[in-house]
Amino acid sequence: MTVEETQVAVAVEEPVKECEKAVVAEKPAKVEKSSSYKEESNYLSDLKEFEKKALVELKAKLEEAILGNNIFKKDEPKKVEEKKEEKTEEAEPAAVKTEEAEPAVKTEETEAAVKTEETEAAVKTEETEAAVKTECAEKTEEGEKAPELAEEKEQVVAPVCEEEAKPESSDVVDTDISLWGVPLFPGKGSEGTDVVLLKFLRAREFKVNEAFEMLKKTLQWRKDSKIDSILEEDICSDLSSAAYLNGVDREGHPVCYNIFGVFDSEELYQKTFGNEEKRGQFLRWRVQLMEKSIQKLELRPGGATSLLQINDLKNSPGPIKKELRVATKQAVGLLQDNYPELVAKNIFINVPFWYYALNALLSPFLTQRTKSKFVVARPAKVTETLLKYIPAEEIPIQYGGFKREDDTEFFSSEDGSVSELTLKAGSTQTIEIEAAEADSSSTLVWDVSILGWEVNYKEEFVPSDEGSYTIIVQKKKKIGANEGPIRNTFRSNEPGKVVLTIENTSSKKKRVLYRHKTNKCV
After folding, report:
1. Rounded Cα distance, 226 and 213, in Å
2. Of 237, 196, 186, which Cα lies nearest the Cα of 218?
3. How far apart are CA 45 and CA 495, in angstroms?
4. Contacts of residue 353, Cβ cutoff 8 Å, sequence gap at least 6
């Protein structure tokens, strides 16, 4: 996320915690999708020349820093200085004792000197005799032993040099440094290294030095905050409904839902933001959620390397809540500085009036790149907006889709594909679900969702035998605009079909989404 994106997230989301996330599914053939939703390529062949050059330069700087052990800050010099000061303090009293002992030492040195002179005289006479005896032998063997002596000298010198070099190379080079599970050392040859480095480059507009410093700060922060072990921690279990991952979008990006309305509860609000310690736990919980999201990414060229984020502002406390505003700003800062370019789209739904006011003020100062990542949907357009990015079978039912928790009827996106039809203003259409064989052990099940509803709707079973009576499954009723998706089932003892009748009495056309299947009863 760029600096501009962060400024927008802080001001526009005020009460919103910056999150990043999404869901994969089979594409409904007729459901409208966003035409501009495409993640930037991480293939080297797709990069522009200046981007390739910046990537090569960053990899070179990173490799040099890793080999030179310059990635993390070093605390050793401070410790050495402290030790020197301690030694100096210890040496001062020792010096006093030394001065007191000097007279005694001098007398001992005088006596030792006399003895040494006598010993040296005896040694010199012995050395003279030995020299005379060996002089002839050395001359004859001098030519043969000269090379051997040279080799011995080299062998003696080499170990000394190695021992002298040991202190200089005592720091072990760690080439296993990684980020988000991806090795960073270019020599490892990981296909994910370029993907990770490109995120930092894009966050800093391909300014190599700035991207490098950002990467170093991220690695240092992770080390100091023990982020690599954060998934093992039990943090803020009460916030499970405030933000969660739920499936993937049409492009395979994991989807993260941020539900700010939960903080409308004063009890939960105080439990989360009541004091500085609690706000600190909230920030760590938010980082933990980000780490969980990253585990679902494919950090390789061609993979889903970012998240789709859905921010639901319905019943949000708004910017009047200072503690939430401050915590949100801190969360945005943490994620911006340490998780760059990990959000493909940032969708705001059920937005209140104050959002539009802030957005209008900030919009002139944003680049097109930043604007393209933000999508805003008012309450009446939530389902329509989400369908552009997420398949209907992956959108939760509270947002107009077909996804239910622990669904016992439709087990996967392939289990009953979603179809769509358009219902013109003032017209009536039917959807027919065949029950070709009479089988009391089989049950028909179907889902129907109409964007905006405000229609008349009924369900009935029509037997194939003309002599049989039509069975009303759901009598005709008027369905309001706020109605959610409908699910129903029917078991028949004879062949026939279930007919769903939709009558559009409004002046606007309607989009109808539906799916069905036959379940065999055990």
Report:
1. 20
2. 196
3. 59
4. none
Please classify residue 126 by burial: count the beta carbons closer than 10 Å to its beta carbon, then call 0-12 exposed, 13-18 middle and 19+ buried. exposed
Residue by residue, what is the 3-state secondary structure of 388-412? CCCCHHHCEHHHCCCECCCCCCCCC
Token pair 């358009």 in the structure block, residue: 422
Give the separation between CA 51 and CA 30, rounded to whole angstroms.
Answer: 38
Q: Which residues contact 433 (CB under 8 A, 6 or more apart)?
A: 444, 446, 497, 498, 499, 500, 516
440: which DSSP letter? T
Provide the residue type at 430 as one letter: T
Q: Which H or E element spans position 312?
A: strand 307-312
What distance in Å separates the CA atoms of residue 435 and residue 465, rounded to the nearest whole number? 12
**3-state SS class at 455:** strand
Which residues have a Cβ under 8 Å from the Cβ of 52 and sit 6 or more positions away? 44
Q: Where are the alpha helices (DSSP H) in 226-321?
A: 266-273, 276-294
φ and ψ of 245, to 5 deg: -90, 140
The single-letter DSSP state of residue 22 is B
Q: What is the pTM of this model?
A: 0.73
Q: Which position has the higher pLDDT, 49 or 2?
A: 49
Q: What are 256-285's pLDDT values in tens digits?
A: 999 999 999 999 999 999 899 999 999 999
Mean pLDDT score, 370-395? 90
Rounded distance between C-alpha atoms, residue 59 and residue 56, angstroms: 5
